[in-house]
Design goal:
Blueprint (H helix, E strand, L loop, with lengths): L2 H13 L10 H13 L3 H12 L6 H17 L3 H14 L4 H13 L7 H12 L4 H13 L7 H13 L3 H10 L10 H13 L4 H12 L7 H13 L3 H13 L7 H13 L3 H13 L7 H13 L3 H12 L4 H15 L4 H13 L8 H14 L3 H13 L3 H13 L6 H15 L7
Helix pairs in contact: 2-3, 2-4, 3-4, 4-5, 5-6, 6-7, 7-8, 8-9, 8-10, 9-10, 10-11, 11-12, 12-13, 13-14, 14-15, 15-16, 16-17, 17-18, 18-19, 19-20, 20-21, 20-22, 21-22, 22-23, 23-24
């Protein structure tokens, strides 16, 4: 039903009644809209909200709720700009609306419909948390735990997460457990971590068994126990945990910790992928790339690598970059640069190095950026002063015309090449010859 039709029906209801009294029941419409949203019927929910939003009898609190509900309907359908507008309208009528505050915070935290801003997200979560809103307590606790938008403070995180856990939020229990493990806890307190994971499991969070499995596998708080780990993973996977399904899939694929069974691995990867688990995307991509338990299919492999890359997995982003580079043209190199930039933003040493190499050595001027290449290469070298990474830094210096630095850096790279890697030494020497001649390197 279009808004014009809704308004017509509403007007008829007003002016055709004996005393001009409204026949619509806006509070009931809000309840109906909330039920429809829970059922995933977002368009129909908005149909009920439209007449309520123009009902002058609504209180400020009810109008705030109406705008929040409509904003959520937009959010659920990926219309984040519209969602942000309605969430902010909700705050105009009720500035302390905790659901709206948390919703706006989430948009800023994830960069959905607005510019990503961890500081602003934390500020909104903090406002909502002051009302005792459990989801806000959870998210502010996570922000303190990870140092996102606020200075990292594990003690404050635990206090906030404990309040959310007392309200029954199993996810808060999961994060509390993690706060007692390395590197967040020094020294780690594995008994506390296990206790909170078990509480989360009792609260219905099946992922908790998976994390208990990881602890058993790593021997946190005792000897490593592969059998106990596998049992935890199986229990979690049977309960629908995508984390455990992907982990078990990898175990059955490699035969490490479980019997080698590629068909079982495929099934588990598919189950986890159906829930949107990025590691499962990588598993399926590998199966299709190698023809393991499925017919080899390059297009399917790229499809799953692409989904993993979009989900933020660095390895997949690097894989997509090198797939693009095989084409060799300008568009392909620009596409590769976008993937490598996303990977480098996650501080992956390999991504920092590989993106710097592309920016320093591309045959296309539109792709090259010597100064950015130097910045990225220096970051990579600070994490791993290897011959290959120093070679990239030297190429970056050469691209900026700093050939003295390029030569000195390349000579250091050559001194670090193992004696049995003659091919690498020859490659690096050819680069050094170019730099000594005053020429940048081009791939």
């Amino acid at each position: 039903m279009r808004l014009s039709l809704i308004l017509t029906v509403w007007a008829l209801a007003v002016f055709s009644s004996p005393a001009g009294a409204l026949k619509i029941d806006s509070p009931a419409y809000l309840e109906q809209a909330a039920e429809l949203l829970q059922a995933g019927r977002h368009d129909l929910a908005r149909t009920y909200l439209e007449p309520a939003l123009i009902d002058f009898r609504l209180t400020a609190g009810q109008r705030s709720q109406a705008y929040y509900l409509r904003g959520y309907s937009f959010y659920a359908q990926g219309m984040y700009v519209s969602a942000n507008k309605d969430y902010n309208r909700a705050l105009e009528f009720h500035p302390a609306n905790p659901a709206a505050l948390s919703a706006v915070a989430h948009l800023h935290a994830e960069g959905l419909g607005v510019e990503q801003n961890a500081d602003l997200a934390a500020a909104f979560f903090e406002q909502a948390a002051r009302t005792g809103h459990p989801p806000a307590l959870l998210n502010l606790g996570i922000a303190y735990l990870r140092g996102r938008g606020v200075e990292q403070d594990v003690d404050s995180a635990r206090r906030l997460l404990a309040e959310a856990a007392d309200a029954g939020l199993g996810t808060a229990m999961i994060h509390l457990a993690q706060s007692y493990r390395a590197p967040l806890a020094d020294p780690p307190q594995p008994a506390q971590a296990r206790d909170w994971y078990r509480k989360a499991a009792d609260a219905g969070v099946t992922d908790a068994y998976a994390y208990l499995g990881f602890m058993a596998e790593a021997g946190e708080g005792g000897e490593a126990d592969a059998e106990a780990a596998r049992e935890y993973f199986q229990q979690a996977a049977a309960g629908g945990s995508a984390v455990a399904q992907a982990k078990l899939g990898h175990m059955h694929l490699t035969g490490e910790g479980a019997a080698a069974d590629p068909d079982r691995a495929r099934l588990l990867f598919e189950q986890a992928a159906d829930q949107g688990h990025p590691t499962a995307y990588m598993g399926l991509a590998y199966l299709y790339e190698t023809g393991t338990a499925v017919q080899a299919d390059r297009d399917q492999a790229l499809h799953w690598y692409g989904k993993a890359a979009d989900a933020g997995l660095v390895d997949a982003q690097i894989r997509m970059a090198y797939t693009a580079l095989r084409a060799g043209d300008l568009e392909a190199q620009q596409q590769a640069g976008k993937w490598l930039a996303r990977a480098a933003a996650q501080n992956s040493p390999q991504a920092l190095n590989d993106y710097a190499w592309l920016l320093a050595t591309s045959p296309f001027e539109q792709v090259r950026n010597g100064q950015q290449a130097v910045t990225l290469a220096l970051q990579a070298v600070s994490r791993n002063r290897s011959p290959g990474y120093l070679d990239t830094l030297a190429a970056a210096y050469a691209e900026t015309g700093k050939f003295d630095r390029a030569v000195a850096t390349q000579r250091e790279a050559l001194t670090l090449v193992p004696e049995d890697e003659g091919a690498l030494a020859a490659e690096l020497q050819s680069h050094l010859d170019a730099f000594e001649s005053g020429d940048p390197w081009r791939e």
